[in-house]
Amino acid sequence: MGSITVNNLVKYYDDVEALKGVDLNIEEGEFYALLGPSGCGKTTTMRCIAGFEDMTDGEIYIGGELVNQVPANRRDCGMVFQSYALFPHYNVFENVAYSLTIRDLYGSSPGQRIKSFARLMSRRLGKPTDAIYKKVMSILEYVELDHFADRGVSELSGGQQQRVALARALVMEPSVLLLDEPLSNLDKKLRNTMRATIRRMQQELGITTIFVTHDQEEAMSMADRIAVMKDGEIIQEASPTELYSKPKTPFVADFVGSSNIYKADSTQDEKGIKINDNFILLTRYSSTKSSERALIRPEGIEILKEKNDGDNIVEGQVTMSTYFGPLIRYDVDIGGVGITVEEDYTTGTPIYEEGDNIILYIPEERVVLI
Ligand SMILES: Nc1ncnc2c1ncn2[C@@H]1O[C@H](COP(=O)(O)OP(=O)(O)OP(=O)(O)O)[C@@H](O)[C@H]1O
């Protein structure tokens, strides 16, 4: 199985600098997500690792081997694309078997190629060899599609096509699996199911996996580690929990969840943040610089039934109330500044409507300076 190391990866498309020196150290068996907005360079990074794209500068190692000069079909990477890229006129079995045969044809010695080609021919005549048959059927069983082996792929649902694409990549037993936004064509419910399926398979097979997505929820729920990219660079790399609780920049904070971000205050004797006339005391910080930003996650703010004399209490007016089932989100105006609050909803939780007054408590341990 393969670890992946990328050193100072630079990629220009003519004069567009798509990657500005990306470094990655992905451990064997790790599930690693590249997360970032459209155009930040996720796919380019992936394509360079797979060998589909020439790089301008840098080094890529797979399983400790420098692969800069190694062609794509010899890099031992299985790749699944957003569009699935299945052969529409082949059935499920053929799509998966074809990938196996093609790799054998182009990735082995001339003697083996002849045998592989013979297998390909025999399959085309409707008599697949035992070895191919067993291998393909076992992987189809694994993705729970063995009963659809002879069905045309165009007659499958999106989620089923997605599993064929996954089977096609896995049948080669690659040491590295590269998944480029594989779930973005699926509806929300199917996406959740496929997330679990992919994560389970990855853990069972222990394949080093890079997953490209612009969906923070997807990255957070699946990956061991996440690299957040922006404008061709990695801004922060961390575990999902660390990324959420200790984002290094306002961009990361905003990208990995909803957040309230305010300027830290440097003018007061006391340390804290000023939100209009409200001062949020931060006793555990030795100083707050004006260059710093204070991040408060919406779920870190408490709604009080009554005002009390404690610190860090602000009053506001609800401007929007959104009910999501398990939680309610309030957009609140506190003297011209907005703050978003989220509260778990259980039966009996009072719901505030637009225009209602609301009392908020901001515990200082829920404020992170970035
Ligand atoms: N073939 C190409 N020719 C010229 N520029 C390209 C090419 N492919 C990508 N780019 C540019 O390189 C940058 C990175 O693109 P890339 O596709 O890697 O981003 P991405 O993060 O995967 O975006 P998305 O989430 O939209 O797929 C973008 O500015 C893009 O316009």
Automatic annotation (TrEMBL):
Gene Ontology molecular function: any one: ABC-type transporter activity
Cellular component aspect of the GO annotation: ATP-binding cassette (ABC) transporter complex
Annotated keywords: ATP-binding, Nucleotide-binding, Transport
Domain ABC transporter: 4-256
UniProt KW Transport keyword: yes
UniProt superkingdom: Bacteria
Protein's name in the database: ABC transporter ATP-binding protein
Species the sequence originates in: Salicibibacter cibi
